[in-house]
Write a sequence for this structure.
């Protein structure tokens, strides 16, 4: 019952823009997952979006601290 947006670090933009959507095209086509890449600004928008109620993070401790502690 959830929709997922996957945000990658700009270093991995080649995967986010080409590989992941190709491999998971059925989920993308059905609207269950979307892919974006970006830095702090993109992550901030996603974290503060009113329709986002759950976050799962994998990455740097600094990113976690910024999201959780501000």
């Amino acid at each position: 019952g959830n929709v997922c947006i996957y945000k990658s670090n700009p270093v991995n933009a080649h995967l986010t823009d080409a590989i992941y959507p190709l491999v998971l095209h059925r989920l993308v086509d059905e609207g269950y997952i979307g892919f974006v890449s970006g830095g702090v600004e993109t992550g901030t928008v996603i974290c503060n979006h009113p329709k986002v109620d759950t976050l799962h993070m994998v990455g740097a401790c600094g990113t976690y601290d910024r999201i959780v502690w501000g």
